[in-house]
Amino acid sequence: MREIHHGLLWTGNARDIREPRKMFAAGIAAVVDLAYEEPPALLPRQVVYCRFPIVDGAGNAPELLRIAMQTTVELLKSGTPMIVSCSAGLSRSPTIATCALAIHLDCSPEIVLGEVNRQTSLELHGALWNECVALIADGREPTDGP
């Protein structure tokens, strides 16, 4: 598990979400599971569990990517400590977590990615990253200036 936004947002892998004691010790109350190739995790009933099976690369339904990001943003807004996980924890989970955090903080995904990359090693899939960033750009309202 890697904490990427103090006390609120972690990224991790399939094994991390199958160890509830570690999650509870960190204060994590929700899981956003993105692993397409993994079976759903069996978690205690008090854990919020949201599963959006996406593949690591191009070709995911934009609606699925959008709802995975929106769910993560809503959990951030509500102050619910969460972990976003995928199979290895190196591409899908940091992509969705970073994009959601950028929306939540109202800043560029690239700026947030730079901060996350300073904290942990990443192996983002370029096509997935580009699709998610495009969805953010499509959803943002143009401003009338500074």
What does this structure look like?
The chain is α/β, with parallel strands linked by helices. It has one domain: Protein tyrosine phosphatase superfamily (Protein-Tyrosine Phosphatase, Chain A), CATH 3.90.190. The protein has five helices and five strands, in the order E-E-H-E-E-H-E-H-H-H. The chain has helices spanning 20-26, 62-78, 92-105, 109-119, 126-139; strands at residues 2-5, 9-13, 30-35, 48-54, 82-86. Strands 1-2-5-3-4 form a five-stranded mixed sheet, with helices on one face. Helix 3 runs parallel beside helix 5. The radius of gyration is 14 Å and the shape is globular. Mean pLDDT is 91; it is low at 141-146.
What descriptors fit this protein?
Protein-Tyrosine Phosphatase, Chain A; 146 residues; alpha/beta; five-stranded mixed sheet; 5 strands; disordered C terminus
Any idea what the CATH superfamily is called?
Protein tyrosine phosphatase superfamily
- Which structural class do you get from the secondary structure elements? alpha/beta
Whole-number count of domains: 1
User: How far is the first residue's CA from the last residue's CA?
Assistant: 38 Å
The proportion of residues forming helix, as a percent range, comes to 40-55%
Q: What is the CATH class? A: Alpha Beta
Instruction: Indicate the low-confidence ranges by residue numbers.
Output: 141-146
The string of secondary-structure elements, in order, is EEHEEHEHHH
- Kindly report the CATH topology: Protein-Tyrosine Phosphatase, Chain A
Q: In the CATH hierarchy, what is the architecture at level 2?
A: Alpha-Beta Complex
Task: Going across the biggest sheet, name each strand in turn.
Answer: 1-2-5-3-4
Mean pLDDT score: 91
Give the overall silhouette.
Answer: globular
Count the beta strands.
5
Q: Output the number of helix runs.
A: 5
> Sheet bearing the most strands, described?
5 strands, mixed
Gyration radius, in Å: 14 Å
* Strand percentage: 15-25%
